Amino acid sequence: MTKFPGPSIPQRLLSGGFRLFFPGSALLAAVSIAIWVPWFLGFMHVPTLLPPVAWHQHELLFGFVPAVIAGFLLTAVPNWTGRPGLKGTPLLALFLLWIAGRLTISFSEWTGMLGATLVALAFLPVLAIFVLKELVAASNRRNYKIVAVLALLSAAQMFFHNEIERYGRVEMADRLALSAILILISLVAGRIIPAFTGNWLKANNPGRLPQNFVRFDLSVMVLGSLSLAMWIAVGGGLESLRFPTGLAMLVASFAHLVRQARWCPERTLGEPLVAILHVGYLFIPLGFLLTGLSMLLDHSGFASAGIHAWTTGGVGVVTLAVMTRATRGHTGQALTSPHSTTWLIYAPIILSALLRILVAIWPQHTMLLLPIAGLAWIVAFLGYVVFYMPLIARKG
Questions:
Q1: CA 55, CA 46: separation in Å to the nearest integer?
Q2: What is the pLDDT of residues 285-301, one digit of tens each?
Q3: C-alpha angle with apex 292: 146 to 169, nearest 5 degrees?
Q4: Tens of pLDDT along 178-229?
Q5: What does DSSP assign to residue 86?
Q6: Whether the Cβ atoms of residue 350 and residue 377 lie closer than 8 Å to each other
Q7: Which residues lie below 8 Å from residue 118, measured CB to CB, with a gap of 6+?
Q8: What burial class does residue 137 get, using C-beta atoms within 10 Å of its C-beta: 0-12 exposed, 13-18 middle, 19+ buried?
Q9: For the residues of 160-228, what is the DSSP string, one character each?
Q10: Which of 381, 376, 393 is nearest to 26 (CA)?
Q11: How far is CA 212 from CA 126, 262, 291, 293, in A?
Q12: In this structure, are residues 383 and 344 in contact, taking their beta carbons and an 8 Å threshold?
């Protein structure tokens, strides 16, 4: 019998969105922090026209996160619609467009800010158009809201560059972008965390099961979205909303905690691959709590701590949780966390999130804690590349 060779590594990498965008996003996450921390501390320079903090915000909100979203959606949409996924040359073109945005922004002293902005702005609309086309073709109206969030994130990126051009700093765009990301996490988490938790509990720890998405979950998301909208308005100068925004944030924090309690997080401690989803989501209510306290107490440290609970914690931990599980599932691996994943990916990203929150509250320890937080972040995301890239390139 003739034995035909399997697909080559390049063919495998171009066979699914997660195979390019997950390792690409992880590399960006690691490299950008490896650059930004010494840059922020005054030890180096980057040839970009963006100030250090603005570059850091841009590459997290509009570089790293959209790549993770792309990897997730390009893998999930074919399952939702029953249609073929993006692969081959079109997938490569989309990935190269994302890379072009990173390079032009980071070297905008050479490319010019206008050209860099135009290139960087192109990725999210192209991704949104593709996802919408697939959903419309399959009459999958349930997921139109995800395209709306992509459009909101794209609009936030346009506002970001407009504010940089007008004021030399970001006033509201970062809040708008982070709010869109938090809404997306809340939406997706409400689907996958109860499902993944329930599947594991049925097989390994019979008993109480998580409750699936119901009207209560929708109410929590609406409450959270309203408090985020008020937070954006306060950033835009409506100081009269500061006190009611603080109260709304505290209520939203409690509501998200109640929501998460319905997913049986305490019953998942036996499997880190499941437990890490709950740990990551826990940073969402923590962010609401700290941001609410910052509004009520006019405490700038709590304000920064809340943002980093959402970003380093919510975004960082949840994305690694989703990326590791999705990669294992789509490459035929057991849905359990090996020690390398638990201790060299999950533990460092949790440590990074906690230390980054402490830096905001205790700025006098920045020179000590910030480099350690940055190093832990780098270890976590490079750990994903080291341990999961071989699976991505050779399996499935």
A1: 10
A2: 999 999 999 999 999 99
A3: 70
A4: 999 999 999 999 999 999 999 999 999 999 999 989 999 999 999 999 999 9
A5: P
A6: no
A7: none
A8: exposed
A9: HHHHHHHHSS-SSHHHHHHHHHHHHHHHHHHHHHHHHHHHHHHHHS-S-----S-HHHHHHHHHHHHHH
A10: 381
A11: 32, 9, 28, 30
A12: yes
Beta-carbon count within 10 A of 394 CB = 11
Return all residues near 136 (Cβ < 8 A) that are at least 6 apart.
Answer: none
Any idea what DSSP says for residue 11? H
Residue 195's nearest CA partner among 325, 72, 323 is 325
Whole-number Cα distances in Å, 4 to 1, 7, 8, 221, 380: 10, 9, 12, 51, 38
Residues 6+ apart with CB under 8 A from 224: 182, 183, 186, 252, 255, 256, 288
The pTM of this model reads 0.96
Crossing angle for the helix pair 17-40 and 52-59, to the nearest 10 degrees? 160
Helices (H), 14-87: 17-40, 52-59, 65-81
pLDDT per position as a tens digit, 82-93: 999 999 999 999
Sequential DSSP letters for 272-331: HHHHHHHHHHHHHHHHHHHHHHHHHHT-HHHHHHHHHIIIIIIIHHHHHHHHHHHHHHHT
Closest CA to 153 of 131, 123, 133: 123
> At a CB cut-off of 8 Å and minimum separation 6, what does 234 contact?
241, 242, 245, 295
DSSP symbol at 265: G
CA 247 to chain centre: 26
How far apart are the C-alpha atoms of 122 and 305, rounded to whole Å?
A: 31
Contact 122/136 with Cβ under 8 angstroms?
A: no
Residue 269 phi, psi (nearest 5): -65, -20
Tokens standing for 226?
A: 């309203």
Provide CB contacts within 8 A for 4, sequence distance 6+: none
Beta carbons of 318 and 269 less than 8 angstroms apart = no
Q: Who contacts 137 (Cβ-Cβ below 8 Å, separation ≥6)?
A: 81, 83
Residues 6+ apart with CB under 8 A from 278: 193, 197, 260, 263, 265, 268
Q: How far apart are CA 357 and CA 362, in angstroms?
A: 9
